[in-house]
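Q: My labmate handed me this sequence with no annotations at all. I'd like to see what the chain might look like in three dimensions before we decide whether it's worth expressing. Could you predict it?
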Amino acid sequence: MPKSPTPKETSDTIARSFFGVEADLVSRSIAARQMLVSALASAIITPLLFLLRFGEVGPLGWGTTVFFVTYCIVAAIGLYFGPRTQYHTPVPLRNDWLDKIGAFWLMACVFGPFFGWVIASIMPITADSWRVVYGVRVFLAAGLPLITALPLTRYARGKSMLIVLPLLIVITLLAMWTAVDSGRDLVAGPIERRTANRQTELYLKYTDQNLGSAR
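A: Here is what I predict for the chain of 215 residues:
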């Protein structure tokens, strides 16, 4: 049975294939600096493009900006610390079911908020459906990133804790932040307010969502 590559061997292969750099400290440091410059450029150019094209940045524009900036920063961290084995976790890879859950962490942080936003955008939000729609959005954007992050905390040992824990916490919280208002409305529920024509309607104040006339 062929031996599975170690995490460092996998990291070196990705760095060589996608970034064109070897495992030496100099080339990795240069590539890491380039990715940080790219992160700064993405933070400026991406919202500017949305503003020029649509007249506003909007949630999708800011979400796209955060995605590109986070990708560049994570890539820079991986490139810089890849050959510096003293910052690698001393805990051996276990390849158990918890590792299989943790392997989807970054995907959950990226696609969970995106699909949660899509569902909340295309599904009709009414007095009968809002709890289901918001519940699905909170689960995808906040629940999945948190669930998949927890198994990875057991590898935050030694010097790797200085890198692993901040990454897990910050990126997971960024994903969860996209569903904060939906979660607050789930907890608080709709309120009644008077309209201009003196009718009473149900209203979700944190997401600024009208649910129609109160029954």
